[in-house]
Amino acid sequence: MNTVMITGCSSGFGLETARHFLDRGWTVVATMRNPDPAVLPAADGLRLLRLDVTDSESIENAVTEAGEIDVLVNNAGIGWMNALEGTPLATIREIFETNTFGVMAMMQAVLPQFRAKKSGVFVNVSSSVTLKSLPLLSIYTASKAAINAFTESVAIELAAFDIRACTVLPGRAMTTRFSQTAQARMKDEGGFPEPYADFAESILARMRAAPEGPTTEPQDVAEAIWRAATDPDCPSPLPAGADAIAWANGG
Q1: Angle 127-147-58 (CA atoms, 0-180°, nearest 5)?
Q2: Which residues are paired to 207 by β-bridges?
Q3: How many structural domains are present in the chain?
Q4: How far is residue 151 from each of residues 28, 129, 156, 179, 241, measured CA to CA in Å?
Q5: Half-sphere exposure of 4 (CA within 13 A, CB side)
Q6: S-S: 241 plus which of 31, 80, 220, 226, CB 3.0-4.6 Å?
Q7: What is the residue range of 146's domain?
Q8: How would you class 223 by CB atoms within 10 Å of its CB: exposed for 0-12, middle for 13-18, buried for 19 or more?
Q9: What DSSP character marks residue 87?
């Protein structure tokens, strides 16, 4: 039976991806900073582990406890929306620690077992905002664009060991807590800086007033991750969701 380890399973894409693999008979090692059985009730093949991707000891313990796996899905991430000038350097570092360095650290921890058995797949969850520049998202976009470039390069060096590495680019998800959490974090840290307040409000007003367009559902992302994990011919990066696919095609 194949085993997948997924980071960031407390909600959204990670939670749906865990369910998706469980439904297909895989053993799922679902990780969260604070494991909650109420989020993912006990099921055949399910293991819940504590993991903070910014903590090297936590990573080492979780990877050791997980044992042999076939696929690592790096999904854990945090969002952020603000102008560069309104983003403290400490916040920038925090975002990169999770979204970028956390992915690299997880891959380093798992690579020895993949290399030893000459098989394994890394699926790194990035974002469709890397396909189209948007205001107020420069820091978040940079943290994800780094993952795109990193994965593309590392995939070449890992191919010699029959290890695959690919990225999935989710679109705008309206049914997860991700964007709401990002805006709440921004407000907690003081909101938009005064010189950018009018500009930022105009951007948010346009977003609120815009007619509904295509968006991304968590199931779209779970299906894309499944394809990336199981299809050796899967393209990378792989957009997930109608809006992400439209952006990838120049829409």
Answers
A1: 105
A2: none
A3: 1
A4: 23, 17, 9, 24, 21
A5: 30
A6: 220
A7: 3-248
A8: middle
A9: S
Task: Report whether 71 contacts 121 (CB < 8 A).
Answer: yes
Q: Read off the amino acid at residue 73.
A: V
Neighbours of 136 (CB within 10 A): 23
The token pair at 193 is: 């800086």
Instruction: For residue 33, give the CATH number of its domain.
Output: 3.40.50.720
User: Whole-number mean pLDDT of the chain?
Assistant: 92
- β-strand partners of 168: 125, 238
Angle at 123 between CA 236 and CA 143, to 5 degrees: 85
Q: Is the pLDDT of residue 189 over 70?
A: no
Q: Which residues are catalytic?
A: 140
Enter the DSSP assignment of 99. Answer: I
What are the residue ranges of helices labelled H in the chain? 12-23, 56-66, 89-96, 102-117, 138-158, 178-188, 197-209, 218-230, 242-248
Residue appearing with tokens 């959204």: 12
- Torsion angles phi and psi, residue 3, rounded to 5: -125, 135
Give the tokens for residue 51: 């993991």
Q: Has this prediction a pTM greater than 0.85?
A: yes
- Interval 79-101: pLDDT, tens: 999 999 999 999 999 999 999 99
The residue among 72, 88, 68 whose CA lies nearest residue 80 is 88
Q: Do residues 83 and 200 lie in contact, with contact meaning Cβ atoms separated by under 8 Å?
A: yes
